[in-house]
Amino acid sequence: MRWSTRQLSLMALLTAIALAIHVAEAQIPAPVPIPGVKLGLANIVTVWAMFSLGPGPALMILVARILLGSLFSGVMSLMYSLAGGLLCYCVMLLLRRFLTREQIWVASVIGAVFHNIGQILVAIVVTGTPAIVSYLPILLISGIAAGLFTGVAAQYLVNRMDKTK
Amino acid sequence: MKKTSFWIILIAAVALLAGAAALWLHFHHPDAAVANIYLDGECIRSIDLNDVTEPEIFTVEGEIGTNTIQVEPGRIRVTHAECPDQICVQMGWLTSEGGMPIVCLPNKLVISLDDVPAKIGDAEIDGVVG
Q: Quick check: B90 and A102 CB within 8 A?
């Protein structure tokens, strides 16, 4: 794939923004002692990139942010982030065809839910203990809430950025 | 393209189902209360919480360090963990009333409440303290 210098620098800037958000969010103590419950604010960047720059740049930004982020939050979380992030990405890629420009927040909600599903699947494989699937309902609810929050934020961002074009 | 109301109803339906499942898991009282302790997928010990008479504290050695597990009549918890996130410690007590498993992902430790003891694997308890 070939990208223009303008697009490459935009992608680099967005990766830096996503990474900064990711690191800042990691400083917030977990609200509930359940692994996988988090806000996922960096997803705002992924959603915007997916719907404004396209799937290619969005994937690059996502993977770069996850790899660089694991330098800060530990390699242990890399597998979880990667599985969750890529599953979320695939679902958003599918949803792109079915959503209007005003329904972008929906992609964030459903993406967040699949992010949590991906993480719990990795957790089951890593621990070899299927019993932890009982975390799924609570993770679905937290995923919907977090996805709604980041989705609405991303929707506002898309609306504003479209106007400035 | 679907109407926005379609997506709202879809999301609300999933949220409702998940909420119902979470409430059921929270308030469902198991017939028995056997705490199965898994390390790296192997059950290393099963404790019937209703049969515990003497409090006990022991440690298990996992991939990145130890977890200290405390057992009292009717309940079990992790008191210390050598991992950065300390989520398993913050989860507090798992009681015979039921509840979600205690999980320490870095150490691959899971304490889950079941009706029956799981088959004991070949992994061994590393040390017993107190």
A: no
